[in-house]
Amino acid sequence: MQVSGKSAIVVGGASGMGRATAEALAAAGARVAVLDRPGSDGPAVARELDATFVACDVADFAGAEQAIATAVEALGGLHIAVNTAGGGIAMRTLSRNGPHDLDAYRSVIDLNLVGTFNLNRLQASHMAENMPDDDERGVIVNTSSIAAFEGQIGQVAYSAAKAGIAGMALVMARDLGSLGIRVVAIAPSLFATGATAKFSAEAAKPMLAGAAFPQRMGRPSEYAKLALAIIDNPMLNGQCLRLDAGQRFGPR
């Protein structure tokens, strides 16, 4: 799908990989809506990009539906959706404090997996209304994690949620294929975002030792490059692509 002239939503677009993707889409000529939590840098990012900002809490499912509708109305349609919002906790299945807190587990699943599916079903509904462009009506890019495949100790909730996002890609692509809508997930390793800002270069070094090359954190712009390559290439569909410099995690 050609990006120029298309309407794009980036959920989690106020920072990190989402912001880099919003910037790349705007630079490529897309009309962009930045969706992020109230109180985020979203309004400033939107002004910088001549984009639209809509407040959106992914864990508020009804609110997210209204936010997407508002963004689509402002853009005049929806062709591209990139979803990067999410987060996790560190908690073992069983620790000295007892079993994993069930509410905490559910909150991680709701934020990452249920929240992403909720966005996808709504985004696809809007995309289905498009006139096809070379038989294509839309592209959805979701964010998984390499923790989906090799989560570390304490990541049971996060790994399960991200594995669900990876697992949805093929089934959802099959569900939406007759409508000309593609679905691809990206599974990044450690990236230099707000979530990893607390790590000094020295503290991060052991975590990156399992990477083949380069042995550094990924850059948000590198996520954005892959997202735009997915949008551009119609043969990329129904899969989860690792973006990890050959990184393999140990148990810790």
Structural overview:
Helix content is 41%, strand content 17%. It has helices spanning 16-27, 42-49, 61-75, 102-127, 147-150, 156-176, 201-204, 220-232, and strands spanning 7-11, 31-36, 52-55, 80-83, 94-95, 98-99, 138-143, 181-188, 239-243. It is α/β, with parallel strands linked by helices and 252 residues long. Strand 1, helix 1 and strand 2 form a beta-alpha-beta unit. Strands 3-2-1-4-7-8-9 form a 7-stranded parallel β-sheet, sandwiched between helices.
Mean pLDDT: 96
Q: What best-fitting shape do the alpha-carbon axes yield?
A: globular
**E-strand count:** 9
Q: Give the termini distance in whole angstroms.
A: 40 Å
User: What is the succession of H and E elements?
Assistant: EHEHEHEEEHEHHEHHE
By helix and strand content, what is the structural category?
A: alpha/beta
Q: Can you lay out the helices and strands and say which pair or pack?
A:
Blueprint: E1 7-11, H1 16-27, E2 31-36, H2 42-49, E3 52-55, H3 61-75, E4 80-83, E5 94-95, E6 98-99, H4 102-127, E7 138-143, H5 147-150, H6 156-176, E8 181-188, H7 201-204, H8 220-232, E9 239-243
Parallel strand pairs: 1-2, 1-4, 2-3, 4-7, 7-8, 8-9
Antiparallel strand pairs: 5-6
Helix pairs in contact: 1-8, 3-4, 4-6
